[in-house]
Amino acid sequence: MKILVPVKRVIDYNVKPRVKADGSGVDLANVKMSMNPFDEIAVEEALRLKEKGAATEVVVVSIGPAKATETLRTGLAMGADRAILVQVDDGTEVEPLAVAKILKGIADAESPGLVILGKQAIDDDSNQTGQMLAALMGRPQGTFANTVAVEGDHVTVKREIDGGLETVKLSLPAIVTTDLRLNEPRYASLPNIMKAKSKPLDTKSPADYGVDVSPRLKTLKVAEPPVRSAGVKVADVDELVAKLKALGIA
């Protein structure tokens, strides 16, 4: 079985984002970029399934500028077999529906038994691509995966919901999105980083899959949240009640 793992290049989670002076978006100049953390978990889970003998090949794919090659090389260094970059112009924001349509085109060409992707990207937190891909392909989906187990022609997914855990059994091929507690991603060793440079990496364009990535949404303004004011200490309950009354709360 082949596993397809989409990965996204985002601002590193340790970096504090800065808003552009004109409020048009987030400033990406001279900012450290890395693989979306949820996608790292997806790559790790695909590799573990391969190591267990449930899969024979892991293919990582990214949709972004030429610099996204670095993100794909990270996936290859972790252990993926080959990579596909669907290149768009630098600065182009590809919306979740366009991403899902491109991934459908890749899946139609690659015929993976399983598509594993992060539940969301930490830059826009949309949490839409996996569900849209499942709908476009007409495949069963297991979102927010806490545990993934492939058994013959089915995959069992324990998924995190508000009330605890829900277990679903899906017929393959299927779509799975990963949650934080699924696993701990491995670090790429230096020998594997060197080997990754010689692994196959194909470059495509959205047009190859007949997808128009023109934005359908318009960002009106981006602003940082207001700074929270400091709290106030009170000496006793009577003073607390007086403060609440003054604020019109009590």
UniProtKB/TrEMBL annotation:
Transmembrane segments: none annotated. One of its GO terms (molecular function) is electron transfer activity. The electron transfer flavoprotein serves as a specific electron acceptor for other dehydrogenases. It transfers the electrons to the main respiratory chain via ETF-ubiquinone oxidoreductase (ETF dehydrogenase). Heterodimer of an alpha and a beta subunit. Coiled coil: none annotated. The keyword Metal-binding does not apply. Gene3D superfamilies: HUPs (3.40.50.620). It comes from the Bacteria. Residues 23-213 form the Electron transfer flavoprotein alpha/beta-subunit N-terminal domain. It holds the Pfam family ETF. Belongs to the ETF beta-subunit/FixA family. Keywords: Electron transport, Transport. One of its GO terms (biological process) is carboxylic acid catabolic process. PROSITE patterns: ETF_BETA. It comes from Tsuneonella dongtanensis. This is Electron transfer flavoprotein subunit beta. PANTHER family: ELECTRON TRANSFER FLAVOPROTEIN BETA-SUBUNIT, ELECTRON TRANSFER FLAVOPROTEIN SUBUNIT BETA.
